[in-house]
Specification:
Layout: H1 8-19, E1 24-27, E2 32-35, H2 41-51, E3 60-63, H3 66-69, H4 81-86, E4 92-97, H5 104-107, E5 112-117, H6 121-130, E6 134-138, H7 150-156, E7 162-163, E8 176-179
Parallel strand pairs: 1-7, 3-5, 4-8
Antiparallel strand pairs: 1-2, 2-6, 3-6, 4-5
Helix pairs in contact: 1-6
Length: 187
């Protein structure tokens, strides 16, 4: 067993679903998230359609470690690298200058991208099984409260969304988001 009670087989099933362009729902530090392969434009389009969310808002990537997200960010443009790394793993998301190759469907047509190294054991295990970061956006329709349980996710996001059953973390609100250039809290 890994990441609580989830088996290696279940993790590999979820990773394979991601690699095939599928969407997964999984627990994070505060709520269930919806995720997909960040490099698949088709998967991101389907995820955004499920949520009724505009691509202009951009998306968050979560990772198991800094090395998984490093290719997506421009570390040289960020003077807070030590502060950012010290906050991880944890529930803090940073909006960091994006590397030049980051697809616009991730950044919302901005020069930045939102990233987090997750502390949630199941979410981190998913990233390790997938061997890279995954999109992480709350499991809800745009404008609605995020799902905090497996049953709420199943009600609103039926198959083909693959739901990875587990407990969301104990954070009462969605995770904090900070601007890496100014240090200002955005959410």
């Amino acid at each position: 067993m890994t990441a609580g009670w989830i088996s290696e087989w279940q993790l590999e099933r979820a990773a394979k679903h991601l690699r095939q362009g599928g969407i997964i729902a999984y627990p994070t530090e505060a709520v269930y998230g919806l995720g997909c392969d960040p490099m698949s434009a088709a998967a991101v389009d389907r995820l955004l359609a499920l949520k009724n969310r505009s691509v202009a808002k951009g998306l968050i990537l979560i990772a198991a470690d800094f090395q998984q997200i490093e290719p997506f960010i421009d570390v040289s443009a960020c003077k807070r690298k030590n502060e950012i790394i010290a906050s991880w793993p944890g529930p803090t998301t940073w909006v960091i200058p994006a590397s030049p190759h980051v697809p616009r469907w991730l950044s919302g047509h901005r020069a930045t991208i939102a990233v987090r190294v997750t502390r949630h054991p199941l979410a981190a295990a998913l990233c390790r099984a997938f061997q890279g970061p995954i999109v992480s956006t709350s499991a809800n329709k745009s404008g609605r409260a995020p799902a905090k349980t497996f049953l709420r996710v199943r009600k609103h996001f039926p198959p083909p969304t693959l739901i990875v059953k587990g407990d969301a973390g104990n954070h009462l609100k969605t995770t904090a988001i900070y601007d890496a250039l100014s240090g200002r809290r955005l959410r």
